[in-house]
Design brief:
Length: about 120
């Protein structure tokens, strides 16, 4: 087992980062901390995809020196997925931060428990 962990250390780091983000997302009541946890989870997924898409000894999929064999290049799909994911993640983060600002203006707190209590009081 030890040799597998040593050989796949990037994947192990990605899983640990995902666990940290997941724990942060569920244990903190502060909305900013939840957004940070979600971003850590996103980063872990991008790291995992990049690690899976890398093949040692292969080059980026740009034809150089007339080499057209597909076995000489890495798969470009994981890189494309990572770039697309980063763009979507930045957009979602911006939306979450904008909604957090509106919540703070409305309730004067970022604690979800307090916001839930104030919403419940308004309903009654």
């Amino acid at each position: 087992m030890g040799t597998n962990l040593a050989a796949n250390y990037v994947e192990v780091i990605a899983v640990i980062l995902f666990g940290i983000g997941f724990t942060d997302l569920f244990l903190h009541k502060n909305l900013i901390m939840k957004i940070i946890g979600l971003n850590i989870m996103d980063t872990a997924v991008y790291l995992f995809l990049a690690a899976k898409g890398y093949i040692a000894g292969h080059k980026a999929p740009i034809i150089v020196d007339g080499v057209q064999s597909t076995s000489a290049y890495i798969n470009p799909v994981p890189g494309g997925l990572v770039l697309t994911g980063i763009v979507v993640s930045v957009s979602v983060t911006a939306l979450m931060l904008a909604l957090t600002i509106r919540l703070y203006q409305q309730y004067h707190t970022l604690n979800l428990d307090i916001i839930a209590m104030k919403v419940k009081e308004k309903e009654e």
